[in-house]
Specification:
The complex is a heterodimer of chains A (108) and B (121). With 108 residues, chain A is mostly beta strands. Helix content of chain A is 0%, strand content 49%. In chain A, strands 2, 4, 5, 6, 9, 10 and 11 form a seven-stranded mixed sheet that branches. Chain B contains no helices and eleven strands. In chain B, strands 2, 4, 5, 6, 9, 10 and 11 form a seven-stranded mixed sheet that branches. In chain B, strands 1-3-8-7 form a four-stranded antiparallel sheet, with no helix packed on it. Chain B is globular. Classes of the chains: A mainly beta (108), B mainly beta (121). Chains A and B meet through strand 4, strand 5 and strand 10 of A and strand 5 and strand 10 of B.
Chain lengths: 108, 121
């Protein structure tokens, strides 16, 4: 099973700032089969990025993903008030699909 | 509107059973693989089970294998999760999630709002 480790656990930033979230895998994620989700309190997760760098339908271009192998990054170029939430990475390159433990982006 | 609506959650004693349902609408249900993903209180996401569009392929997380059974009825646009021998650690919000058509299995592009399962005596 591929273990995903996200860092930092919490990121305290102000609106307008840049957010950089990391996701490390215990072994290489085949074909960069990595996704990022956003989850707000009491709501279901929302798909942001798939295949490491492709934005899902309707996702603003301030969200971008990069990386390959064992190191992946989600970048939010300029934080909007609605971006403060928990973000999860997920690999679907090998079964079982696994998620990271999440990074909370909070208002500083 | 594409929508998934879960139901069937509740309070059950350890060792008990529960059957979750997920009603799909707004898309051709029979064309998509479907999944269950759960989230324990205050914790992260855990994939539970997947079923292919025609039920030919079924997968489970080790944590539920032998206790949970996923199924679907394409005529009723519905997904199910039969949960037996429930344990306290199965307590979670259970989400129904659709596999995307981005080309790879395991990308969850539509999610329901979830149904809460609590296992406690």
């Amino acid at each position: 099973e591929i273990v995903l480790t996200q860092s930092p656990a919490t990121l305290s930033l102000s609106p307008g700032e840049r957010a950089t979230l990391s996701c490390g895998a215990s072994q290489s994620v085949s074909s960069s089969y990595l996704a990022w989700y956003q989850q707000k309190p009491g709501l279901a997760p929302r798909l942001l990025i798939y295949d490491a760098s492709s934005r899902a339908t309707g996702i603003p271009d301030r969200f971008s993903g990069s990386g390959s192998g064992t190191d992946f990054t989600l970048t939010i170029s300029r934080l909007e008030p609605e971006d403060f939430a928990v973000y999860y990475c997920q690999q679907y390159g090998s079964s079982p699909w696994t998620f990271g433990q999440g990074t909370k982006v909070e208002i500083k | 509107e594409v929508q998934l609506v879960e139901s069937g959650g509740g309070l059950v004693k350890p060792g008990g059973s529960l059957r979750l349902s997920c009603a799909a609408s707004g898309f051709t249900f029979s064309s998509y693989s479907m999944n269950w993903v759960r989230q324990a209180p205050g914790k992260g996401l855990e994939w539970v089970s997947s079923i292919s569009s025609s039920s030919s392929y079924i997968y489970y997380a080790d944590s539920v294998k032998g206790r949970f059974t996923i199924s679907r009825d394409n005529a009723k646009n519905s997904l199910y999760l039969q949960m037996n021998s429930l344990r306290a650690e199965d307590t979670a919000v259970y989400y129904c999630a659709r596999d995307s058509d981005y080309g790879d299995y395991g990308i969850f592009d539509v999610w329901g709002k979830g149904t809460t399962v609590t296992v406690s005596s």
